[in-house]
Amino acid sequence: MLDKELRSMIGKVKDGRMDRRAFIKRMAAVGLTAPLANQILAIGGVAMAQSPSPYPPTKRGGGGPLKLLWWQGPTLLNPHFATGTKDQDGSRLFYEPLASWDVEGHLNPILAAEIPSTKNGGLAADGKSVTWKIKPGVKWHDGKPLTADDFVFTWAYVSDPATAAVSISTYADMTVEKVDDLTIRILFKNPTPFWANAFVGAYGCVMPKHLFADYKGSKSREAPANLAPVGTGPYKFVEFKPGDLIRGELNPDYHMPNRPHFDTIEMKGGRRCRLRGASGDPDRRIRFRLEHAGRGRSTAASREGWQGQDHLCRGRRHRVHCDQLHRSEHRG
Questions:
Q1: pLDDT over 70 for what percent of the chain?
Q2: Which fold has domain 65-95+223-313?
Q3: What is the pTM of this model?
Q4: Which of 36, 199, 227, 292 could anchor a disulfide with 98, C-beta 3.0 to 4.6 Å?
């Protein structure tokens, strides 16, 4: 696609002659993802769209326990060592990024006070830097304040080859500097259209400097917090059995008002996790009982190399066990 044509399309979106979805479809036709298309619009001066929340919370807590059956249990709870989605999902209960993408390619703030744009001065016109403002008043689960120092440390921690973080490429070819206690600036070596990568999404979770500073580099795997996380998320760590179970409890100081809804969370995993009746048949009757007697709902999903269901249940009367009869490795 020619530069002139691209600039013309961005101009049409800016003045309302083309909607954002049509622009994203045009970009997808030439092989660009929705997040990258949205970042091109942002550099062109079109503000990032944020997805509306489908759930307007009215109070924090009161939802009872949330119990999840997962296809495989996490083996550690450091998001930068996550070798698959099981570890990413487990870590994400406790750790958070500056922002996260939704399925439509919208970038939504989490620990960020706002999404950077050219209008608010967050995006440099030359595409070589982005400035993030951190939400004030956020605390780690141990009561320490979240500051820019934690983000600068996370960049140094992950980008050190001796740390052996799986997310190292996300933080390559950049420098992160502290502007003030609640502002960081990311400096890129070259113009970078995909600027919302570091500190965004699964590999964007920030780590507490005061707990990991002594474990940077070759000592990274020795950190106690790898198995007992202290994050900023909606749930505080209670218990972890690697490969089996995670438990968390509501964070009363969570920075998002009226969240979370559930009082406790439990994530149960296994080699192959299925709901089974006493006869060994699949779970239709059990799901019916969960939905009608358990005050909850269940959903089914599948992954390559795995046949079964993930189920959500808020009921207290009915328990479902994770079948671990099949112990062969799956491609999770």
A1: 70
A2: D-Maltodextrin-Binding Protein; domain 2 (3.40.190)
A3: 0.73
A4: 199
